[in-house]
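With this grant's support, the team has encoded backbone shapes as discrete tokens. A representative record is reproduced below.
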Amino acid sequence: MIDWLAFVEVFAVSLVCAGVGVFFYSLGLRLLVSGGRPPVVPPAEFPDAIAVRSDKQAARIAKKVKKVASRSPLTRGQQRLLLAVAYACFGVCALAVIGAVLYLMLY
């Protein structure tokens, strides 16, 4: 016998926590970029990779990031505030995941 109420409960908790996680992660990324710290990940070196960025390409990308960050109309204090809120958004994402897992484990 399937307990449909428990199924709906798990579905609802999963859906709400996924929505909260996606919303706050995207908001955190947006605020991170607005705060002057766009996430730039250096390319990994894989021996069988189809395309790997060269040092010249990586330098060009870093130059563009620096140029975009220097054009910010925000003051240093505003940028720090945006970064703090961005990190808080990432914390809410982590809490949503942890909360969903704990909720589903306890019930």
User: Anything to note?
Assistant: Residues 36 and 70 are 8 Å apart (CA to CA). Helices lie at 4-34, 55-70, 76-106. The first helix runs from residue 4 to 34. The mean pLDDT is 84.
